[in-house]
């Protein structure tokens, strides 16, 4: 675990995955919000 915390490459991939997940959640929220409003 300490190796992951000190490795910048691991941090980069964790950050990248985090951004992708955040974008997916954001777009899913927008999609649901718009479909509810349009009814």
UniProtKB/TrEMBL annotation:
- The UniProt transmembrane annotation reads 12-32
Q: Which terms are listed as keywords in the entry? A: Membrane, Transmembrane, Transmembrane helix
Give the protein name, as stated in the record: Uncharacterized protein
Q: Which organism is it from?
A: Paraglaciecola agarilytica NO2
